[in-house]
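Before relying on records like the one below, remember that each one covers exactly one chain. Contacts with other chains, cofactors or solvent are not represented anywhere in the record.
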Amino acid sequence: MSNEIITVAQMRAVDEAAAKLGVQVQDLMENAGRAVADAIVKRFTPRQTLVLCGPGNNGGDGWVTARYLRERGWPVSVCSLTPRDALHGGAANAARMWAGAVQAPEEAAGAELYVDAMFGAGLSRPLEGEAARFGSMMAASAERVVAVDVPSGLNGDTGACAGEVCVRAAVTVTFVRKKPAHVLLPGRAYCGEVLVADIGSPDAAVSAQGVRLFENCPELWISHFPWPSVETHKHARGHAVVASGPHTRTGAARLAARAALRVGAGLVTVLTASDALAENAAHLTAIMLRAADDAGAYEAAAQTAESVVVGPAFGTDDEARTRLEAAMSATGRCPIVFDADALTLLAPLNRALDERDVLTPHIGEFKRAFPGILEVSTSRIEAARIAAQRAKCVVLLKGPDTVVAAPNGRAAVNTSGTPYLATAGSGDVLAGLISGLIAQGMASLEAAAAGAWLHGKCAEAYGPGLIAEDIPEILPRVLSQLASSRSPATPHS
């Protein structure tokens, strides 16, 4: 799948497997350099260009890039951190084929465009010496930088800077598949526009890696999306229930409920204490309302609905805990989306949940629910995976690089969205989207991934000024675009 994300180790294994299948390193390097040159020519006009080359294959890609740019009439020179006669392997071969100017590191400056081919995704140590000097220079002029594989100084597996200096780029050209650094923050911000080039590595070499990490996009879940068919009726589209908070704390549940209804749930009910009935009724029309003053009502809701949301402004007192436990312990209960206050009630989470459940913590809630995991994990991806294994259910770790993980290790990183989602109630809407999709029969991992993607796309479609109430209202436009993008052969149900 084109949305696969591979680690640095997996990329090395792909290269090794490609070699065993008869694909020469020099051919891969040639294709990589040509792809970088193509990307540059499409995005920039000819200008004085300096290609900064490191000692390894990333540097070899840079020598090839320079050659192709020169053949197209670009004024280009190369600066190598390693003397040409000290290079080895593919980089040495690529350097021998360069007939243009080579600048000494101390002389290299003043270019209008820089190509960062110093170090690729495998670098795990800080930039030093001339590399650090060039890194600082390029970090100050990111709009004039094209990076090969990843910006130098960026850890390919974590998206973190290996030291104090890290290159920033306007465009990053990577190969075969994206790496975690291209989708995780802060790496994603350092990479700029990310292009993935096919350089001739056989698909079999990638398939052999058993990739279980993906960039979240419709390709991952569209075949499971619950589009209604001609004969569909509202009861066939599922019943989602949202637990309301007490009097004066009811708005969050209504946000989740409206999102569940908008995303397609046939029926949505807000479960509320009697003292908040009038408050909720004043705002609800198509969404139903049910009084619930004891734990038995929550148990019954979990048994009769197709999904339940518990948490948005739900409360964290003993009464709230009793009601949550009633829903969780109901015989034959439906999947539950645990958000906000429910996560606080469960913290620290040291028991297994139903495999169909979904936890939707932001970073603070995650630390309370799973103390110590984030601190010892190499990335948010690893942390979410460990949490999902511990809870035995789907975990959606919210943020600008939201991670969705299942207990079996399958995970996706979401890259849709804008900073305008950082607004009160946005997370409640996300919980409702996920619940609404589960109510329609979508598996929890796919529902969480689809909900996160739709949530982000709604923010992109709306733009500045977004508030949580706007997300369900812009959703029909996003769903229409999603529907029109499907293959004609895609079934409606």
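The first strand starts at residue 49 and ends at 53.
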